[in-house]
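cron nightly-structures :: item 1 of 1
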Amino acid sequence: MSKLSREEEDLIVKQICATVKAGPMREYALHNALLGHKVVGRREYIERVIQLQDKKTGTWGRWKFNGVQRKVEAIRLRTQRAGKPERYCTLKARKWGFSTLWLGYGVEYVTRTPNARGVIVADDTDGANALLEIGKLMKAKLPFKLPVKYENRSVLYFDEPIYSLLDIDTAKNPDPCRGGMYRFAHCTEPQIWPDPEKRAIAIENAVPDEPNTVISYEGTGSGMNWWYDFWMRAYRGESDWHALFFPWWYDKNFDYSLKLIKDQAVALLETLDDEERELLRMGLDAGQLAWRRAKIENTFRGNVELFHQEFPATPREAFIASGRPAFPSNQVLSIKSEAKDPIWKGSILIDDDRKSYRMAADPTGPLWIWEHPKPGTPYAIGVDVGHGVTGGDDSVAVVINAKTCEQVAVLLYSPRPPMRATIRPKEFGRLVGMLGMHYGNAYLMPEIEGPGVSALDALRDMSYPALGRRETYDKVGQRTTHKLGWSTNSMSRPALFNEIREHLALETDGARFHDHRLAEQMLKMYLSSNMREEAPSGEHDDYVMAWGIALMGRRYAMSSGFVASKEESIRLSLDQQHWKEFEADCIPETEAASITDGQDTDWSEEEWT
């Protein structure tokens, strides 16, 4: 609120009018005395002085900050009071008014700060022109006519005694802000800039790294690119930038909600899908879910992925929806919705003889168990081994029921926060061997690339009785051979990910996992330009790889005869199920009885182990 009473304001106006002749200097004196920094706060100045056009009615009137804009202002005030340079990168849904907000901040800055230089860098010329026109209208509607030096097609310039300007530049300029020195810079939609890193460096070098300076970026998701890396580094605390995210549902009092009567709300809540249930757990109400349904149906013609791109609910959704997700998010979320807490957490302790072990309960332990081993039940384990160095890859072993494909346990060492647990590859191999013994000598398939070789050596040293083998073709000998462990290469990697996608698509007959950490890792992965499944920069895929290796190991276990009663244990793929039904309809019963689902093998269990 203004620190002046009505009487004080009237007295100031009379004094200035009596001492300063009419004209730009009087207007500036009134503006400075009644609306200066010491009299009116920044938000109050913008809401009282800078008018905004109502998109619904087209009329100009006083600005009222929405919930998102109030949050941004609170963060700015907190940063300023800490005496730090203001550095923000904002990931957002559409229509929150960020460009307009920062344009208002720019106008406020240059009208109340002598010798101020600010710049706004739009994504293209059309965007720059639109912001310039709005800025001119904001300036024209100020209550006092401040002295203007000249009109420029890309600059709002204020003359003596202010000597301030707000430049409107464009990222189409190969070197924006060159030759200038600014203390305020805002950049829009950097995710679609040409050569964004070069332009960002030019802009950031034009603003000194000291208190009372501002650099802000705001944009939507656009796949895994420079903008993703930049925002994620800030989000993980690896830079001095504030990473902000505002989903479409942030402000319940904004436009993104419908008013429902009680019966409508009850009916909607009885028909929620998996994604809507997840949103409900995040705090959304029935009115917001009703708006979302209507928006998807009416604006996006039922295309949920397009809605995610324009109106993300999470940072992951913002980036992945606008790229190419490696796995169908609806299928992953469906399984995640049924995830449950483990029934036991702890560690495996190897005895001094390295031939026996103990299970020690520990709520922070690396071993999570959802189902203890059952006598007579076959299990398979997939292993992805990290180097055991701080900040490196995880070491993960996933245990699944080889008949149902359900996850029953995971042993996970992560050298990064919050776990910060490192383990040498050979030691991890020994623990995995003990875990396999705990699950009845489970069929154990370790990845043998890189540090996986050490883990495999440890398993062989302890004479683990059920090491998995993969089928390979010997070009020299022109025959099929079987080698220990899983090798990830250009041919086996696509097969592993296709196996995962196949199981996800099988719904109730497919694989089931219970760990939310696996779901989050799957949801972050995307398809690169050459259609390769990748984890985003700074993220990891080790858990997904271990789970995929477990599924592939189970497949080899069945083909080797390691898993008994093959017919009962096989979960048919979509193609196999379709063909089986086709056979039942088209082939005589006596002929169909002679057809099997796969090739039998004469490999014995002893040869496989």
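cron nightly-structures :: done
Residues 147 and 160 are 7 Å apart (CA to CA).
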